[in-house]
Amino acid sequence: MLEIKNLHANINGKEILKGINLTVNDGEVHAIMGPNGSGKSTLSSVITGNPAYEITEGEIIFNGKNIVGMSPEDISREGVFLSFQYPVEIPGVSMVNFMRTAVNEHRKYKGLEPLPASEFLKLMREKKEYVELDNKLANRSVNEGFSGGEKKRNEIFQMAMLEPKLSILDETDSGLDIDALRIVANGVNKLKSKDNSTIVITHYQRLLDYIVPDIVHVLYKGKIVKTAGKELALELEEKGYDWIKKEVDGE
Amino acid sequence: MSVEEQYINLYKQHAGTIEKNSAGALNDARKAAFERFSQRGFPTKKDEEYLYTDIANSFAPDYGMNINAVDFNVNPYSSAHKYSVPGLSNRIYFVVNDQFYDKEQQPKAAPLPDGVIACSLKKAAAEHKDIVDKHYGKAAKDSKDGSVDFNTTFAEDGFFLYVPKGVKMPYPIQLVNLMTSSIDQLATCRNLIVIEDGAEAKLIDSIFAQNDHKFLANRVTEIFVGKGAKYEHYKVENTKSDMTNLNHIFIELDENSDALVNELTLQNGLTRNNVEVNFRGKNANLDLCGMAICDGEQHTDTDTLVNHWEGGCTTNELYKYVLDGKSTGCFSGTIMVAQDAQKTKAIQTNKNICLNKEARMYTRPHLEIYADDVICNHGATVGQLNNEEIFYLRSRGIPEPVAKMLLMFAFVNDVEEKIMIPELKDAIRMMVERKFRGEIESTCKGCASISACHS
Fold first, then answer.
1. Of B373, B231, B383, B363, whose CA–CA distance to B304 is shortest?
2. Of A63, A89, A127, B188, whose CB has the highest number of CB atoms within 10 Å?
């Protein structure tokens, strides 16, 4: 599914990622944890082609294609989805218009005709169920005036609409109360299959109680410094990151 | 010879002819206006109100003026479908250059309610003398703009609308200004709109230009909205790159009246929109808004002055510009609140996007408040499209140009929402989309249509 080799990336000339290696196989759930400023969000931005970052070295192979240098829209249409930590509010662009444009661009990429309006609306109705998204929200402008929880549910709704092969959930648990967290996690779990993979970026163990990872990585100072099974998340919850920092900095 | 001199000489030579081709109040006001124009001349860039637009220079070329009121020999009704808002052809009037067209009537026009008068201003000045005499020149009387005096000096005709007390127009009226001529043409046209107490009306005032000649239009529209009356005025411009459009709107609002002015500039050359509103009674409301979408070397300058002379009135002002190419936009807005105009609420907003480094926006929001119990604010922004928003849309598979277009749509959406005629809103949205898609060329010579092809 995804193979990242020796990935280095800068923003404004400052190196944030300093040689990331990561392999995600079909059907796997990976968690990437790490202290603030370790480069977690940068990694998700870089994989999805955010032009604010410059990749200086390395490869990102997604289903056999090197996606380094590919446009964000092409990476999306290849099947990578990013659930944003801070979803952007776009006043004036309706959710319906936004999603119809996105779905039809994905279809065009695959050589399919645009979806007829009635089928599209049916699809919207179906997918909203995954995250119990209110009908009214779908008629509003993208994320405008949405609460923190609604924004995150809206991200998972978009994920359901676009049916990605690889989903990256960037701090999807931040700003969620326990009910919203459960709804969001349920949505993600319902969308899981043996053919698609998930990378969960998170600070805390909390979300991993609901979305259970196969493999847990710790990112620190732009490198993956530890990889283990799901028990690593529990250990981090208990002991914090200091012991890892000591291990790495003491080397 | 100064720019003004050729026109001063022209008037002196042809004053008799101009009077002969006009009537009543238009002629009564002419001589005094000519004296003022001779003294003031056109505004220059030294005038505070015209810092960014050299209007005198626009009058310098040798344009033809139709002083003799010669017939332009077109029947606009034969192609009315091109200028009419789709689905909205109930009643449409034409002014060809500066002549009200009444040789033919609109086929199958919806009947006018009892007492409503819609006709040539020249005809109204003779046949409805009392109404015209009472209003003509009264809304524009305090203007210090020489180009308004120029209009009063030369205007022979235009459109007249009168809606009597309590009558509610059941459909919007469309007034189409069509610029078309076999020579470079200067059109001086005058409109008068009188909405009596408790009456309601909506006017779509559109301007189109066709063929290869240069045009200069200098129009003055005076509007009177009576007590408790409601009036909406949509000014739509879809002209061409070598068109100069100088447009003045003066509005007098009486007690408890509601007025909406929305100026939609979609395709143009050099445009100057002046709006002056005077609140003459308490508790009236004004929505004043507009948008300009410019590319190439288009230039759109808006100057608004809203005078709150009476208390309890509300102004909501919103202008938005999207500038591409080497286009320039200017906005200068003043809201004045007089000492006795307590409980005034006024908001003035101007937001602008420059899509590249060569596009320029000049904005000067301005409040002048002499009362102490008011809620007023103003703000202006000039920026680019937001990169985070663009990335968000692209990360969902939407190509960059489409993402930018969606954001531009979103940007002008709140001005479109102030179009209260659904058919017009749809037509404008369609034109905006075509403009953003680049299907309307900045060098377009104009094929004069609100909906169809723009080659």
1. B363
2. B188
What is the ipTM, given to two decimal places?
A: 0.95
Give the pair of three-digit tokens for residue B346.
């006024």
Nearest to B268 by CA among B301, B303, B239: B239
B76, part of any domain: yes
Write the CA distances from A179 to A85, A129, A184, B391, integer angstroms: 18, 16, 9, 30
Residue B441 lies in a domain: no
User: CB–CB of B392 and A90 under 8 A?
Assistant: yes
Between strands A2-11 and A14-24, the pairing is antiparallel
A28 vs A204: CA distance, rounded Å: 19
- SS3 state of residue A173: coil
pLDDT, mean of each 10-residue run, chain A (251 residues): 95 93 95 90 95 95 95 97 94 90 96 93 90 80 90 93 95 86 90 93 87 93 92 89 86 59
Q: Which residues of chain A have a CB within 8 Å of the CB of B402?
A: 101, 105
Does B116 reside within a domain? yes
Neighbour tally for B290: CB within 10 Å: 25
Q: Are the CB atoms for A39 and A219 separated by under 8 Å?
A: yes
- Any idea where the domains of chain A sit in the sequence? 2-249
Is the CB of A141 less than 8 angstroms away from the CB of B399?
A: no
**pLDDT of residue B442 exceeding 60:** no
Q: Which one-letter DSSP state was computed for residue B106?
A: P
DSSP per position, B58-72: HT-S--EE-TT----
Report the SS3 class of residue B235.
strand
Pairing of strands B345-354, B375-383: parallel
Residues B341/B310, Cβ–Cβ less than 8 Å: yes
Where are the strands (E) in chain A, listed by range?
2-11, 14-24, 29-33, 54-62, 65-66, 80-83, 90-94, 141-142, 166-170, 197-201, 215-220, 223-228
Crossing angle of helices A95-109 and A148-162, in 10° steps, is 30
Total structural domains within chain B: 1
pLDDT tens per residue, range B37-70 = 999 999 998 888 899 999 999 999 989 998 888 8
CA distance A165 to chain B (A): 13
* Secondary structure class of A7 (helix, strand, coil): strand
Across chain B, mean pLDDT equals 93
Q: Is B363 inside any structural domain?
A: yes
Fold (topology level) of A2-249: Rossmann fold (3.40.50)
Distance (Å, rounded) from C-alpha B187 to C-alpha B218? Answer: 6
Q: Which structural domain, as residue segments, surrounds residue B109? A: 3-436
- Which strand ranges, in their side-by-side order, compose the sheet holding A14-24? A14-24, A2-11, A54-62, A65-66
A106 touches B at CB < 8 Å: yes
